[in-house]
Amino acid sequence: MNDEKQETKQERELMPLWEVFIRPRTGLSHSHVGSVHASDKVMAVQAARDVYTRRGEGVSIWVVASAQITASDPDQRDENFEPAESKIYRHPSFYDIPDDVGHM
Amino acid sequence: MTDRDDLTALLLQIGDDHLVLGHRLSEWCGHAPMLEEDLALPNMSLDLIGTARMCYSYAAEIEGGGRTEDYYAFFRDGTEFRHVIMAERPNGDFAHTILRQFFFAAYMNPFWRAMTESVDRQLAAHAGKAVKETAYHIRHSGEWVIRLGDGTEESACRMATALDDLAPYIGEMFETDETASRLIMAGVLPDPAPVRAAFEDTVAQTFAMATMPPFEMTAGISGGRSGRHTEVLGHLLAEMQQMQRAYPGLKW
Prior knowledge:
Helix content of chain A: 25-40%
Oligomer: heterodimer
Strand content of chain B: under 5%
Radius of gyration of chain A: 21 Å
Strand content of chain A: 15-25%
CATH topology of chain A: Ubiquitin-like (UB roll)
CATH architecture of chain B: Up-down Bundle
CATH superfamily of chain A: Phenylacetic acid degradation B
Low-confidence stretches of chain B: none
Helix content of chain B: 55-70%
Shape of chain A: flat
């Protein structure tokens, strides 16, 4: 049991996880698409290319070590996000748009 | 004017190298050591098979007898195949497969780069695409060679073993027979010297970063270009050709 844990830890250190972001085409921003295991950043970009751009999905790849990401605490979800829910006036949906403006 | 038979012979050599090695790579599908390589190896395999298809379609077109690319892939026997023996050798472990791919790509990339200047328009057009594919194959396999060669004691040992196993097969890629000599004269094939120099340069740089000893090409095993193959080819063809042999003309 202990050995098993050791090995998992070693594997994690040899092949850490990387988050992958792909830009679908010039002008759009990179979006998170998933993650890959790789020994280092160079191999992570290659793995991302092979796993996530096989169907012409992208023109640019970013990878970020998953361990480098700082995330919000799920336990703080309510205090973080609920206060915004009651402030619907922040959505720009209360304007009358003249017909001749056309598509906005 | 290039001799039709010479051009067909060349197309089968290139096509067979790519089909047989592509098939070997495809054997990793579902068996690679990690998911990422389970996609990377078949990705390269499909690039190689794409080149084989171009060669066979072109050969069929020259022959003009109504044959298709499938004839060359599925209805020829082992002695009719013209690939280098390295392509058919079993995959071995991951280090062996990666090093073999590295050697092949290190040769094919400068080959295709030079072929963009070929007087044969169809080959020159394909070369533009193949240069990009093989550039990635060098990068992917080369980065692995560096990490395995300069990795753990175990990975370095496996790289050394792979090199011992593969070394006798490398020279065959650079053999120039009479057909090739005529095609070089005709401007279809490039001067082999700069291609070989580029290969040696790529290998030297990567091996140095991989802390592996310098590679020296020696006389080794050949015969593949004249249809003399090793016993493993029969098994490979049996698996690859089985469907078309059992159900000729089968489509999917």
